[in-house]
Amino acid sequence: MTRIPHETSGEPNPLQLLTLDRLRRRTSMKWRTYPEDVLPLWVAEMDVPLAEPVVRAVTDALELGDTGYPAGTAYAQALAAFAEKRWDWDGLAVERTAIVPDVMLGVVEMLKLVTGYGDAVVVNSPVYPPFYHFLEHMDRRVVQAPLGADGRIDPGVLEETFRQAVADGRRAALLLCSPQNPTGTVHTAEELSAVAALAERYGVRVVADEIHAPLVVGDARFVPYLSVPGGERGLSLMSASKAWNLAGLKAALAVAGPDAAADLARMPEEVGHGPSHVGIIAHTAALRDGVAWLDALLAGLDTNRRLLADLLAEHLPAIRYRPGDATYLAWLDCRALGLGDDPADVFLRRGRVALNSGIPFGTGGAGHVRLNLATSREVITEAVRRMAAALD
Q1: Strand ranges across the sheet with 368-372
Q2: What are the tens digits of pLDDT across the range 256-275?
């Protein structure tokens, strides 16, 4: 795989550039949900300044008054070029893409194309809680195929779940989280090929949420689901949102495999009216010109992973933490602490640290918390200190 080495990006670590006082001036969900005495390490927002090319592109658009409706394929072209350079994947065909408002709304639209009311959608729990919320809201039946103890997809469990999902003769789909949130697992080509083979055997359609794809650290390699044998019938949702901290600038891309192009073509035209034109400009600039910034971020996240592991070993050795190879989210097994199913509640009340409770992530989530690593070393250090103090 071709990759610009993180150490030579020439950019400063964006995680170390903002003070806590400045961050508390933000008005987004991360900084307004809890009182000021709480350290917020929960929702997936990063404590970073935006990449300069993104700021420049958005500023130029605002100065020009370019705030109308989205048009063109610049976003898809930028993603295709990024995918070829970053993942050695030249199979992202611009003509098989469509803009959607964001990844989760894109997931909903893709599942509407390949399933109907009451059909089963399989998820690999523990997994991103909105998967459950959106699926239930669209009247799909959520079926869990839990990950193994190693945090990886269990082929035997997945096959049995697929068998049950289609037993009544109805359609079914797998909503695949790749890379996986909250574990940070990066699925290998072999694992994804096995998923595709099982999906083909049981007639299950795969919709892949690949929003964390650019956030792979160390030597791990992201493999697009559509690139593996059998992935031709898959549908994917991708975005620059998570990697460049652009959640408030709504835009994502739906990508179809060669054998799913007809499905994507059936998506209603009005779905493409939902993304923000300014958001598309920002995402395009990030993918096209923000790679050096991304590499500096990944180097900083790698440092934070090791820092967290060291701090937990020293102050909270009963917490089990297996650093993931992707995302900026740490999945912490707190069951040995004896804090019950929801240790996040204890850490918030006693330690004034806001973490995500593991319970909403489904099977395998009880007794766990999710911690956001995308902050400064000082904040992580203080958070662990407060967590340890909460046990006194």
Answers
A1: 320-321, 329-333, 368-372, 356-357
A2: 999 999 999 999 999 999 99
